[in-house]
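INFO  loader      accepted 1 record
INFO  loader      residues=349
INFO  predictor   begin
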Amino acid sequence: MMRLRLLYKRSTRLIAILLTAAAVVLLLWLRGPDWPRVGQAFTNVSWQWVAAALALNVVSVLLRVRCWWAILRRALEDPRLPYRGVLSSFAAGLIANAVLPGRGGELARVVVLHRRLEKRQGLWSTLIGSVIAYRLLDLIPAVAIAVWVVLAAPLPGWAFSSLISVIALGTLLFLVGIAIASRYDPRLDARLGPLRRAVAFARHGLAALRSPSSGARAAAYQTLGWLCQLLAVWTGMRAFNIDVPFSAAGLVLVLMNITLILPLWTGNVGLLQAAIALPLIGYGISYSRGFAFGIGLQAIEASVGVAYGLVFLTREGISFTALRQTRPSPAGESSNGKAGGKPPAHLET
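INFO  predictor   done
INFO  writer      dumping tokens
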């Protein structure tokens, strides 16, 4: 019975993925760009600029890993936390985000890092909290670039509305995150239920947001990572002979990240390219050429993530299937002191 249920679940998921993919392909074929012109755009690509974009994406990833590393060292109170283990975990998240719908990569990095660390009470929840802190710090450069683009770039109405929404929502989420982190109480009541205890440990993962030095260090790494990615977008434009103001690269970067907030299918392929190509029309770039650039840009970024992920998953000895099937159980862990090990001193009751 259990096997039949599992088979039915997998079959349903596979059918849903195939139907979604078929719908995307049909939509792109019927309402997509002029495909011969898209193909023609690839015949004039400057591969030196492609190599530069790849290198900048590699540096961007390393800087973002440094950001998460700074957050984790503060959350786990372990200044000796090995960088290589954090890099492996981050790489696993990159490949999961590149090839799976949803944001499975956020969970994948927690799964891989949890394998490497000494078990302690609330570890799952603390790691999840650190990922939330990482994403909150992501909002600082994202909002800054959005403000710059609004002030510097000519925008169509829909893009202007989208960026204003990003600025307002991003600022609100960051302030809420700071408020939640600041209200953290290190005294955990032993009588708290598993769920509330897990939430308390997850809030401890936001510790970097309460520390000016750790928070500033992590935010600096995150900002530098975004700057490298911005330069990668600009060099990608040069690779496709798209000569537009530098602020257009900022517009593409922000809209690309908005599109990828929740991938409905793998990489939101098609939707992402449309989001990149449409604003470039205002700069005199044809939709087909902008669409081709979107394909190339996503391929550049995905290739870096997949390459990192495959290398480090192999070193960790984890199959991709096992990574997908692993699920954390923060509530159960935090309610069982024996299973979770001894909590950090500042979390003991």
